Amino acid sequence: DKSETKQIVFLNLICNGIQMVLTVLFGIFGLLYFNASYNVITSKTVLIIFGLLILTFVVLFSVKKLTIKGYSIEKLIHKINEIPKPIHRKNILLAICRYIVFSHQYYFLFLAFDVDLPYLVLMSAITSVYFLSSSLPTFQFLDFAVKGSVAVYFFGILGVNEWIVVFISTLMWFLNIVLPVIIGSYYVLNFKALSKEKLNKTQ
Question: Crossing angle for the helix pair 162-173 and 85-112, nearest 10 degrees?
Fold first, then answer.
């Protein structure tokens, strides 16, 4: 019902929010591990990134009472706290499982293409790619181009053929975005058709 729209948007925000937090956390650790072996960025750049993250958190919490169109960070935190803790724990667990599945899809596809690299090195590159590509603004249907470009750079450092990287990134995009969208569209269109039919019957 339309009366529940705000609640649905809010819960969707919580679900996607925890996924983003995990992407950032795993990505930072992956990037630090990758950087320790291959010196992609300097120590100064790492410090600047951490400084910016800390500054962002400080700014957000210092303006948490600032209200824009009736909404504020303080109200958002209060609403998040209203959700029972078991639901938060379940959401975090499912988000971790989802992240493990996505990242290991990449990992097993590289193994299928005979990319023989140590597990931690390969996973650190994958988590770094997810982190950096999710930080760049893009549309869902251009996601493969952004992820592919970042992946080509990172896996190029590891000596992986760029065509293998591009193909795997495109395959990931097709399996995780294009295919679900096609299936989802079919169900949405069917749902709309059934709703109209029910409405006509009631009239």
Answer: 140
pLDDT tens per residue across span 85-113: 899 999 999 999 999 998 999 999 999 99
In this predicted model, what pLDDT tens digit does every residue of 5-28 receive, in sequence order? 888 888 888 888 898 889 988 988
| 3 state SS of 68 | strand
Instruction: State the pTM of this model.
Output: 0.76
CA distance 155 to 158: 5
Counting every residue written for the chain, the total comes to 203
Task: Report the C-alpha gap between 110 and 120 in whole angstroms.
Answer: 13
Q: Which amino acid is at 47?
A: L
Q: 67 φ, ψ to 5°?
A: -105, 130
Angle of CA points 44, 48, 43, to nearest 5°: 25
Q: Are 108 and 122 a contacting pair, CB within 8 Å?
A: no
